[in-house]
Amino acid sequence: MSELLRKTSEETLFSIIIPIFNRAKHLPRLFASLSQIHAGEGEILLVDNGSTDNSLQLCHNFQQSFALTGWRVQVLVQEQPSASAARNLGATMAKGKYLYFFDSDDEFDSRFLQDAQPLIGTADLLCAPTLMVFPDGTTKKRFMPKGHLLLGHLLAGSFSTQSYLVRRTFWEKVGGWDETLRQWDDWELGVRLLLHYPSIQWLSGTAYHRIYQHEQSQTGTPFAQSLPYYSKAFEAVATQLHRQSYFSKHEQSVLLIALCGKKLLLSAIAHRQGETTVAQQFSKEAFSALSGRTKQVFKALYHLDRCGLKALWRIYYLYCRLSLSIK
Question: Cα–Cα distance between 152 and 129 in angstroms, integer?
Fold first, then answer.
């Protein structure tokens, strides 16, 4: 009974978990944005992942200077070189009813927690779009297709971790982050979350946070260098799709077709950037798994994508949605 009372008294609303590895350049911007939080009560868990710059010291400085009633900052160290391992450590130590996994090179929008607070306890996931910021300063609201979340996430990675608060008990049920994945771990986690049929509440149409794309982010890593990690993530997701017994054979087939579409989207990007190894591998894998009309349609879409036609993922998405309705 005493343990239960202790746990209840320590429980808070929000736990913001941020893995950090050599981000000294970006941390002042992150910390300035976190200092603007003014909603609810919670904690910020900064998990250093073996930084060799002064990131850890900056985290301790922020911990000492942060002063907000109802909030606290913890600084943790995870020596295992894996952002997923760092996130899992933070989640293990978290006391929040809802977990929020944020990245150390991005800018937090305090309105997110303010708008989410009235919905606490109503759903497993509290979702909202984010704002992507590109190196040239242009911005783009990340689209989240609500018609079929799983198809949208498979094709566009729209269910990124910055897009949702997750109920801690639901996250524990799903199993946490896959520490064997070094990249696209958030894509794989998003698939597993959606395969567990979460209850979802949507915030307003506002795009929260500023998610920066730069040379040190995963999206800036050369394709050839990331190929083994991409392949492993695809294998993990394919395994999850094969494993779900509640899908009909038709539904499972369409979801695996969407996975082929994702490979072709990645292949086309690699082709346009001159990364022929990735382009050839993923296009070969995708087309070998397709047949008939679908293969012909996807070949045409792939050609258009390689030529630079934008937002092809939407057409793949619409094709798969239509395929779900035709048996």
Answer: 13
Distance CA 219, CA 156 (A): 13
| Torsion from C-alpha of 241, 245, 249, 254, nearest 10 degrees | -30
* Contact call for residues 167 and 124 (beta carbons, < 8 A): yes
Tokens of 38: 């003014």
Residue whose C-alpha is closest to residue 145's, from 134, 135, 154, 132? 154
pLDDT digits (tens, 9 = 90+) for 216-275: 554 445 666 777 788 899 999 999 999 888 889 999 999 999 999 999 999 999 998 888
pTM beyond 0.85: the answer is: yes
For the chain, where are the alpha helices, taking DSSP H only? Answer: 2-10, 27-34, 55-65, 83-93, 111-116, 149-156, 168-174, 185-195, 223-243, 249-272, 276-288, 292-306, 312-325
φ, ψ dihedrals at 134, nearest 5°: -95, 165
Which residues face 179 on adjacent strands?
A: none
